[in-house]
Design a protein that fits this description.
It is a single chain. By secondary structure, this protein is α/β, with parallel strands linked by helices. It has eleven helices and eight strands. Strands 2-1-3-4 form a four-stranded parallel sheet, sandwiched between helices. It is globular. The structure holds zinc ion (ZN).
């Protein structure tokens, strides 16, 4: 009798994941920060695949054959929708691969800001005609996810799409989304408090990923890279001069990008390069850590 019960319990425990696994939503997304939102809202009702690996560059990445295969079985694709090159180049092909896949546009309801390009117009010899065709199309900044304010909108878009794809569990997705949104709101308040005391609100970044973040916290991002290109020697000279004038001691860079010109500027101003990551999947901790690095290094 006792043995039988144990066997039955074992069967229940071991078969459970298969029963669950069957109707989990299979979701594919472009970048790791979006996977964080999907996993937090979808919980144990979703299987998430991220196409661009950690450390991968969303401006140049290409999907593998195996990823194309995963796509052909997906229920839902969550795209950033803000104009990252990867999606501009691949989204149509990926949709054609799986006509049954529904689409969630994470950027719906977010107003896109202008990218670094406009600064070039004021600078002699660096007008738009040199712009890299594969970078930041339409001159809109694609890095929407780095703003906690936008993150709340993204969370709501994902919640709506999950509920649409799996209405039976809608209540579960709503509950998870409101927990996540609470966390994002306290994240915003924490960072506002952390950065409140900084008097010089300009910061230099190699890759201009932090425009939306800067907007949330009343900071000003000065990009080293322009339209996806290393600066010319002339521009580098101007940046060094500007950094000296602004009494800046740190150039922020990110692990996805070459840091040579960031190091050149840092050396010239007797400063250093500090890494901040725009692509981390550990979204909340990463933004808090980023704010901590800004707080320590800005003055
Ligand atoms: Zn970028």
């Amino acid at each position: 009798m006792f043995k039988k019960t144990i066997i039955i319990i074992f069967i229940i425990i071991f078969l459970q994941p298969y029963a669950y696994g069957k109707d989990r939503l299979k979701i594919v997304t472009s970048i790791a920060p979006l996977a964080y939102f999907i996993e937090n809202i979808g919980g144990d009702r979703v299987d998430v695949t991220t196409l661009i690996p950690p450390g991968g560059n969303p401006h140049t990445y290409e999907p593998t054959l195996r990823q194309m295969n995963t796509l052909s079985n997906a229920d839902l694709y969550v795209k950033a929708g803000s104009g990252i090159e990867f999606e501009i180049i691949w989204m149509k092909k990926m949709e054609d691969l799986n006509k049954n896949m529904s689409l969630c546009d994470a950027s719906e309801g977010i107003s896109l800001i202008e990218t670094d390009g406009h600064e070039a117009d004021n600078e002699h010899g660096e007008k738009g005609e040199h712009e890299d065709e594969h970078h930041h199309h339409g001159r809109r900044d694609p890095h929407i996810w780095l703003s906690p304010v936008n993150a709340v909108i993204i969370a709501e878009n994902i919640k709506d799409s999950l509920s649409g794809a799996d209405p039976e569990n809608s209540e579960y997705y709503h509950k998870n989304a409101s927990l996540l949104i609470d966390k994002l709101e306290s994240l915003k308040n924490n960072i506002t408090a952390m950065l409140g005391e900084i008097s010089n609100r300009k910061f230099f970044t190699f890759h201009p990923a932090w425009g939306y973040f800067a907007e949330d916290f009343n900071l000003e991002q000065i990009p080293v890279e322009l339209s996806g290109k290393e600066p010319t020697p002339e521009r580098l000279g101007r940046l060094i001069k500007k950094a000296r004038e602004e009494n800046v001691k740190v150039i922020f860079s990110s692990p996805q990008f070459s840091k040579k010109s960031a190091e050149v500027i840092a050396r010239e101003i007797n400063g250093k390069v500090v890494f901040i990551d725009p692509m981390s999947e550990d979204y909340i901790n990463n933004l808090e850590y980023t704010a901590q690095l800004l707080q320590e290094n800005m003055r």
